[in-house]
Amino acid sequence: MSAPPQVQAPAIQPASSGDRVRGTFFRLALLSTLIISCILLGVLVYDVARDGLPKLSWEFLTSPPSALPTRAGIEPALMGTIWLMVICAVFIVPVGVATAIYLEEYADSSRWWNRLIEVNVQNLAAVPSIVYGILGLAFIVRGPLDLGRVVLAGALTLGLLVLPVVIIVGREAIRAVPPSIREGSLALGATQWQTIRKQVLPAAVPGIATGVILALSRAIGETAPLIVVGAATFVAFNPDGLDSAFTALPIQIFNWISQPQTEFKLKAAAAILVLLALLLIMNSAAIYLRNRFEKKW
Amino acid sequence: MSTTTQTVTRAPSASALGASRRRIGEDFIKALLIVAALISVLTTTGIVLSLLNETVRFLGEVGLTDFVFGTEWAPLFADPSFGVLPLVTGTLLATAIAMLVAVPLGLGAAVYLAEYATPRVRMTLKPILELLAGIPTIVFGYFALTFFTPNVLRDLLSLDVQIFNALSAGIIMGFMIIPTIASLSEDAMSAVPMSLREGAYGLGATKLQVSTRIVFPAALSGIVAAIVLGISRAIGETMIVLVAAGQVPNLTADPRQSVETMTTFIAASAKGDLSTGSIGYRTIFAVGMTLFLMTLLMNAISIRFVRRYRQVYE
Question: What confidence tens digit (pLDDT) does each residue in B191-201 have?
């Protein structure tokens, strides 16, 4: 009888020390990529805060800009931003929600025109913001609507820019409502619109509200479309009507950064802090809304 | 007791089953909703029409070869030249630098979050990425100009850069794009079924091998989609480049110089008050059209790749 064949080393081996070292290095390398991003974020916030905090004051919030850097304030810019956001919201909420309702509840997705609308919304979400500015310039400021460089034009341009966000998030919120709710309502004799108005929409409102706030958070920081549409860089008055010239916080920040004096750059940092504070408030509101009113089906 | 076997029949009242006549209001509502939905279609049509119209007129005056292949961009000079190449190379230079930063950092973050991070770590680190994504681009521009160029590039790294340079803008733009690449790549990697990983572990693979040789190739379509989307965002970005890279059209591959991109040109021209129909006004649209076509192409490629990875795993 021949000797039994030598047993080869098992196919499954415990990790060699080389493997363990490589594994640890890899894990650390990956973690360091995240840490680099965190460091950049931290340095950015620190730099802006260090430059801008000393310049924050009530006078800063309530004075108009000035050629003298020490006296410059952001009141017209802040009011302009608020006006823009309010008008923008008035535009995007009905149009965005209506589009979301149509696409989710009424549209038959086997029809080519409904698919076209869907693809359209997706494409629009990825168009650069400055192209929306060009659109606003060609059609809203000049062209058919010919509104001129006024706050309504700016708000409509921003509205078109963020409309896809409202539509996409609104659709998800409506889709999250279970079919059983709709079916129960229809079985009790309600029409489609009654079902939507009384059952689906109220259930989807927290999600839709989150979407609107997300959209406005995006709109509040947009500078490029406003530059093209003609937000003025030096206005000393608050907007006094839909047809008044306007400026906005990002525009004011951009204007001050472009000035050579250091004092203006510090004021720009302070204005950035105001902008970030507004963003923080809006996002906290969105998170609060989502946690408080989200229904678990 | 015999009544229990008797079934009670009664004609159901018409109201219990819903009205059989359609309310006119229903059709009216539906029409209103369709009008709202068409606004998004109108937006796209508006973009395409406005760009196309003025671009065609522009090309009628300037000529396609001069525009596409010319190397000198000086549209408002007394003797103007309309070669768009300096703007395109400016855009591509800034984009390339941004991608060199965003791809490794973004993918590294994605692999860590998808494969290595514990739920608690993920809960603290993901919001950081979301914060990065929510910062307005003008803030990044401020940071690039007032901190990054003087303190990091000139002092720390002792590079000989101009005060406005493509390197600073490109690097900071890269950081801005990291969240886009990271979140889409992480989605793609999380969509890879556990069974693939478990099979590999069962055969004795280490975590490093599973991450790099199993998950990463399996999620490749989604990762490519994320990168292409990042490129699209970089091409379309305006404010960071406007503030930090200057506004001098410059046909160069040297990132230490200032460049003008398609987006910064549009912003800078539109600030002035050009009269409708003038050649200066038309250049905005011609450059805008070039920009729009480039991003459209990138987005179409990205959507194609997203569809491919969704198809395979969902």
Answer: 899 999 999 99
pLDDT tens digits, residue range A180-213? Answer: 999 999 999 888 888 898 889 988 998 899 899 9
Q: What is the pLDDT of residues A214-259, one digit of tens each?
A: 999 999 999 999 999 887 777 777 878 888 888 899 999 999 998 8
Q: Please identify which residue in the block is written with the tokens 């889709």.
A: A175
- Tell whether ipTM is more than 0.85: yes
Amino acid at B8: V
Q: How far apart are CA B260 and CA A254, in angstroms?
A: 17
Q: Tell me the DSSP string of chain A.
A: -PPPPPPPPPSS-PPPHHHHHHHHHHHHHHHHHHHHHHHHHHHHHHHHHHHHGGG--HHHHHS---SSGGG---HHHHHHHHHHHHHHHHHHHHHHHHHHHIIIII--TTSHHHHHHHHHHHHHHTS-HHHHHHHIIIIIISTTT---S-HHHHHHHHHHHHHHHHHHHHHHHHHTS-HHHHHHHHHTT--HHHHIIIIIHHHHHHHHHHHHHHHHHHHHT--HHHHHHT--S---S---STTS----HHHHHHHHHTSS-HHHHHHHHHHHHHHHHHHHHHHHHHHHHHHHHPPP-
Q: Is B210 on the interface with A (CB under 8 A)?
A: no
**pTM of the full structure:** 0.87
Q: Say yes or no for a CB contact (<8 Å) between B43 and A163.
A: yes
Residues of B in contact with A217 (CB under 8 A): 134
Express each pLDDT in B86-138 by its tens digit: 899 999 999 999 999 999 999 999 999 998 888 898 888 888 888 899 999 99
Q: Which of B138, B185, B208, B275 to mutate to test the interface with A (most CBs of A within 10 A)?
A: B138
Verify whether the Cβ–Cβ distance B238 to A128 is below 8 Å: yes
Decide: helix, strand or coil at residue B290: helix
Which residues in chain A are closer than 8 Å to B54, comparing Cβ atoms? 138
